[in-house]
Task: inverse folding
């Protein structure tokens, strides 16, 4: 992770690192600014670096908080025998983290990719803690219309003889995302920043486990959580919601966007043809402006 100490990186990510001990591991997070708390939950294979534009843009008026899941970003990266890389533990870690912050006001939750399932499962369990919801290319329900997982993900998830060397050895999940998740060629320092924590096979374990843990059927660990959240999302309809969606996403495509609209018909929705899965890399200024306006229109009590 040599690039982390590079002045070029610090220019992109000029934040103070903080840590909390969870399950005995260092759980890294950002906590910038003061005011109403805005908590951002990343997915796979990103980390808190992905939210840097929102942290910079919001921390002047809000308390911007972004954790790195265990195994990701600047958090500890335990081996398989030390940590169970499952949705259940991800959710419990996040609950412990929020409890440790001792927030005195309802939080605004921003979620992307796997962060959607983790964050919305938290919201399902603690609706009283949520003041506003902001959704970016993610899901919090089983695949709509019984959609199949794309072949690239199925190979990693279901064929370890292919997935393990591809992800751990060649870092193809991170490198593939850099090529396919954005609509533009990302600047070299940004690409270095997104891949920096995943520089060795050991440090890439979480990127593999997130894919292997995708729950698709009732036989899969974590499917009970996905099903429960999907069945009870309607209980969050009273919470103001903003949905910003990159149109060019080969996993979270238009069907997922439409499913969010069906479940939350009163949400403010923006479908962006100029963006892909990494919406905050493609149109960061546009999303930041929409988020700021949304927060102003829906002040917390």
Result:
């Amino acid at each position: 992770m040599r690039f982390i100490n590079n002045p070029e990186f610090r220019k992109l990510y000029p934040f103070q690192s903080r840590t909390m001990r969870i399950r005995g591991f260092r759980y890294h997070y950002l906590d910038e600014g003061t005011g109403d708390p805005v908590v951002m939950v990343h997915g796979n294979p990103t980390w808190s670096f992905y939210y840097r534009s929102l942290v910079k843009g919001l921390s002047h008026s809000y308390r911007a908080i972004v954790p790195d899941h265990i195994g990701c970003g600047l958090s500890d990266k335990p081996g398989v025998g030390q940590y169970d890389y499952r949705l259940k533990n991800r959710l419990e870690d996040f609950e412990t983290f929020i409890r440790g912050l001792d927030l005195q006001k309802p939080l605004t939750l921003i979620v992307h990719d796997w962060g959607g399932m983790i964050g919305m499962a938290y919201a399902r369990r603690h609706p009283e803690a949520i003041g506003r919801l902001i959704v970016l290319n993610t899901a919090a329900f089983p695949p709509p219309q019984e959609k199949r997982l794309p072949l690239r993900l199925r190979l990693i998830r279901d064929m370890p003889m292919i997935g393990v060397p591809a992800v751990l050895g060649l870092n193809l999940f991170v490198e593939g995302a850099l090529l396919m998740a954005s609509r533009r060629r990302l600047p070299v320092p940004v690409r270095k920043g997104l891949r920096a924590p995943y520089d060795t096979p050991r440090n890439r374990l979480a990127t593999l486990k997130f894919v292997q843990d995708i729950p698709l059927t009732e036989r899969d660990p974590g499917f009970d959580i996905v099903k429960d959240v999907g069945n009870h999302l309607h209980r969050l309809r009273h919470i103001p919601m903003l949905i910003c969606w990159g149109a060019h996403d080969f996993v979270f495509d238009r069907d997922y966007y439409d499913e969010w609209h069906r479940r939350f018909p009163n949400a403010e929705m923006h479908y962006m043809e100029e963006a892909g899965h990494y919406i905050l890399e493609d149109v960061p200024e546009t999303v930041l402006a929409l988020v700021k306006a949304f927060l102003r229109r829906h002040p917390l009590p």
